[in-house]
From TrEMBL:
Keywords: Electron transport, Iron, Iron-sulfur, Metal-binding, Transport. GO terms for molecular function: iron-sulfur cluster binding; metal ion binding. Pfam families: Fer4_15. Gene3D superfamilies: 3.30.70.20. This is Ferredoxin. The keyword Zinc does not apply.
């Protein structure tokens, strides 16, 4: 499972931070950061979801008010 985060779309409500500790507040930028992620496109970051963190990652994606977070299963199908 992997998570994709569009930081440009992020508006800094930080609900994702409350749901999963892989997201961190970046108060200087007014946006969240995704710990350990690789930038795959400008301002778009991806990281593999560790075993046992799938539910937290899903909650983080569902909590985002602007849909800046997408979650994909191992087959590449979008879950959230």
């Amino acid at each position: 499972m992997r998570i994709r985060f569009d930081r440009d779309t992020c508006i800094g409500m930080f609900q994702c931070v409350e749901e999963w500790d892989a997201f961190e507040r970046n108060m200087d930028a007014g946006k969240a950061d995704l710990d350990g992620a690789t930038e795959v496109d400008p301002e778009v970051f991806e990281v593999e979801v560790p075993d046992g963190a799938e539910l937290d990652a899903e909650f983080a994606a569902r909590a985002c008010p602007v849909d800046a977070i997408e979650l994909y299963d191992d087959d590449g199908d979008r879950v959230v």
